[in-house]
Amino acid sequence: MALRTLAPADPSSSPTLSSRPNWKRLDGVDVLRGLAILFVVLNHVHMRLAIAHIRYVADTSKPLIASLVWNGQFGVQIFFAVSGFLITSTALRRWGILSNVRLRDFYLLRVARIAPMLLALLAVMAVLHYANVSPFVVSEKTGGIGRALLAALTLHVNMLQAQRGWLPANWGVLWSLSVEEMFYLFFPLAARFFSRSNFFPSILLCFVALGPFARTIFARGNDIWAEQSYLGGMDAIALGCLTALLVCRVHFSRTALRAVAMTGATLILSILVGLRLTYVPPIAKSGLDMTVIALGTCMVIIAAAQTQWKGPRLLAPLLRLGQCSYEVYLTHMFVVFALFAVFLKCGNPIWSVPLLFVATVIVAAGVGDIVARFFSEPLNRILRERWRDGRRQLGSVSDSRVGSVEL
Known about the structure:
Elements: H1 27-51, H2 63-69, H3 72-95, H4 103-130, H5 144-153, H6 157-164, H7 169-172, H8 175-194, H9 200-214, H10 223-228, H11 230-249, H12 254-277, H13 281-285, H14 288-307, H15 316-323, H16 325-345, H17 353-387
């Protein structure tokens, strides 16, 4: 989602909107999204190698290697935090205050952004299942193709996997969409009815507090549910929402913003790399590592939003990767499977493993960019135009192209 400078279509309908900061696209946020999807793609390439028992390095648990190829779950947590910030920021810009959120508009905007890609993905995967393409066949053990489609459309892929085991990887990635969209199913209702009494932030803080427990005690030894439970991911989304509220209400000095940015970056690096350099089991076993990386992400977002940091040209590929992260996330496993098959047909030479990682990232980014430019973004605009009420565009903003970030 781009945070662009917008004027309300009807200023009288949103009296506080004009007093809020006008944001252009946030390069800092796009960099975070780019890093997050990079971690996910690298992690899935590594998992293909691990499943095939191909040892391309002596020890993948070494800090440098692990920080590159074992951070997929942390990458999703970064996505969640960014998503919460962007959705809440967009709602504040569209409606001025959260209690003014129009439920119809909010849900239609979500459908316009999410549905085209999701439905297309499910159609392709169903065809591949019936064509008996092995990486895409849903086994009867997990309920078969009908059960998988139902789970994807009703936002409980995570529950299905926790109950019946792993789905094929292309289906499995939809667990994060289940968590995220379940949160946004209730977000506008809570915002509309509780924000005037200032009870809404307290609700968000409850989600933050419950996150670590959901990843540990509430999981009851189920490793899949520990990673993919609703509450286990919603703490990061809630932190992102709180960050948007804070950024809109509090203006930080330059000195404070530098300190916030450095602290946030330190927290992120401490989880991505530091935990592997220094063995600190309590934070991981308590589930707090996910909360810490989400908190660090939100601190970096605060600095990016209020300083309007612009990334250098060197980061342009990473910025674009972040801008189409939703499309890359939903399509990258096709690239992973295809290039890994080529790798195996070539005799899986160890020397080419770095090339496999690099090629997969480049091709996945390219595919995601093409899908975004020529499919999901055009359909997003078409749906929003079709659903507008006369001259009133969804959300009462002048540019209906502004959407929200997805995994």
